[in-house]
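Reply to dn_fold:

You asked what the input looked like. This is it:
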Amino acid sequence: MATGDRVDPFAQYNFLVEIDGVTRAGFTEVGGLTTEQDVIEYREGADSATKRKLPGLRKYSNITLKRGFTINQELWLWRKTTIDGVTERRSGSIILLDEARNEALRWNFVEGWLCKWEAPALNAGTNEAAIESMEICHEGLEQV
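and this is what came back:
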């Protein structure tokens, strides 16, 4: 018999993207919510044959976003600030929602800017939606 409340995993399709506090709608995929850290290995002369391991520099992967291509050019114009040499940095969040569409988890990024934007692939032989993709590079990610 079960002894506690059932805890199901969250569905991966129920999320929002906020940039500078404004919700951006229509993203079909978000990826790259990754942090990692370099490992510094060293050994002192008096140590046994085992290396010591210390945390080194923190690294954050680019956040990848995909959405259906529309006439809304707001994110392209943000990318264009960097192309034009006046990079505009923004903070944002990826918000995972529960089944009732209440916030369950939030990942906040800081000092982000669009470092890659890709136009949709065009193919007259399919009937799929045109999907644009972009990458936000940033200087910090935390889960709250």
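The first helix runs from residue 74 to 83.
Hope that clears it up.
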